[in-house]
Amino acid sequence: MLARMAAIVFIFLCIAAAWAALGATVMTRTATQDESLKTAVGQLWGAQQRQLAPRIYYQTVQQTRVETAQGGKTVTETKNETVNHPLLLDGSDVQVDLNLDYRQKGLLWYSTYRVRFDGKYRVTNYTDAEREIFFDFSAPNQSGVYDNFRLIVGGKEIPNLPFNAGVLSHKIRLATGQSEIVEVGYGSQGLGEWWYDFGNEVSQGKIFSL
Which of 68, 31, 50 is nearest to 200 (CA)? Predict the structure, then answer.
C-alpha cells in the first residue's frame, strides 16, 4: 500500500515538474519575443502616438557683423540672421476620440486603438505691429497612417497641405490684437498609449480644454 502511494506521489511530482518547466519555457519565450512582436504590430498597425501642441511664432531678420581673417587681414562681413519669436496660443479646445481594438501577435494580445483628433486653436497677434504668424503642427508619428487630415483657417479649408518632415506649417497675417481660429483634424491609429504634449519649452498655457 505504501509503495503504491509513493509511486502515485512520485508520478504527481514528475508531472507537476514537467508542467512547471513547460510553463517557464513558454513564459521565457514570450517575454523574449515581446519586444519584437510589439515592433511587428507597430509596423503593421502604428506605434505609440504623442501629439505635440502647435507651435506659433513670428520671425524678424537681424543683421550681425562677423569678422574673419583673410590673407593676414581682418575682413568684416554683415550677415542677415532670421530669429524666431515664440508666442502663446490664446486658447486650445482639443477633442480626442479613442477606440480600443485589441490585436493578437503570437501568444500575446496588444492594445491597439483608433483615434479621431480635432483641435481648435485661437491664434492672436499680441505684439505691437502687424505680423506674419507661423503656425506649425507636428504629426504625432512621421511613419503613422492618417486619413482626412485637414487644416481650416478662419472657416476656410486649406488645400494641398504643406508637410515638411512631418510638420504642417502655415502663415497667417494678423494685425495688432487680431485673432484667428485654426482647426486641425485627422484620423489615425496607434499602439499602447496616446499622449498630448505641450512641449519641453512651455511653462504656461491659456484657456486649455481636452
Answer: 50
